[in-house]
Write a structure and sequence with these properties.
Layout: E1 2-6, E2 17-21, H1 30-34, E3 42-44, E4 49-56, E5 59-70, E6 79-91, E7 101-106, E8 120-126, E9 135-140, H2 143-147, E10 154-161, H3 162-165, E11 174-180, E12 190-196, E13 205-207, E14 213-215
């Protein structure tokens, strides 16, 4: 059994960042902010640390986070049995069961733009327990998520808070998932892949994002 960590190809790519939707100004209801058309969100790229849902007097705003992972160096013969996305964040949701992130396949272009608000498709996994205070959070990919990973591939992702996913207007003014994106040095999201090599393929190795190698 071996694990290997993957980040972006070049630190921070143009396809990474945060989309912020409040219908372009003050007075956005929850429905307007969450159900924006493509022309409404504003893009913050790069962004560092933001609440996924925020409320200031008379205005809701919803945020979605986009990033990409480059699976360079994964052995071509690797048999993947699982993967986890690691992100640094917390959550401020007042109600139990909503301090959770949901990971989707991102369909944004090579440069994140306003029209990418709904640029996500297949659910690739979600937090199954409420996350705690600031720290590294672990979100396990489902079979579709880790099944899409292959040697040398680049996959774009989107993380949304559960309040956004469930279209549930929260009761807390600063609510939902908060995370640090790839623009925040040393806190960029990464994916840890667990795999084995075919019989006769030699000793598996464990790789770290820092470049160290340990023979398993």
């Amino acid at each position: 059994m071996a694990t290997m960590d993957f980040t972006t190809a070049s630190g921070v790519s143009n396809s990474e960042g945060c989309l912020h939707s409040n219908n372009g100004g003050w007075g956005a209801t929850w429905a307007i902010a969450r159900d924006s058309t493509d022309s409404n969100p504003s893009v913050s790229n790069p962004v560092t640390s933001e609440n996924s849902v925020i409320y200031t007097p008379d205005t809701w705003a919803v945020r979605r986070y986009f990033f990409e992972i480059f699976y360079n160096g994964l052995p071509a013969t690797a048999i993947i049995s699982g993967a986890d996305v690691h992100y640094y964040g917390t959550s401020y949701e007042a109600d139990s069961g909503y301090d959770r992130g949901y990971l989707y396949l991102g369909t944004q272009g090579d440069t994140l733009v306003n029209t990418n608000w709904n640029a996500q498709s297949t659910l690739y996994g979600n937090d199954t327990v409420d996350i705690g205070g600031w720290g590294w959070q672990t979100l396990s990919l489902n079979a579709a998520g880790y099944g899409a990973i292959s040697s040398g591939s680049t996959i774009k992702y989107c993380i949304r808070g559960k309040t956004d996913v469930d279209d549930r207007e929260p009761g807390n003014v600063y609510s939902g998932l908060t995370l640090r994106t790839a623009a925040y040095a040393n806190f960029e999201p990464f994916v840890r892949v667990t795999y084995t090599l075919p019989s006769g393929g030699g000793n598996p190795m464990m790789f770290s994002s820092g470049g160290g190698v340990t023979v398993g």
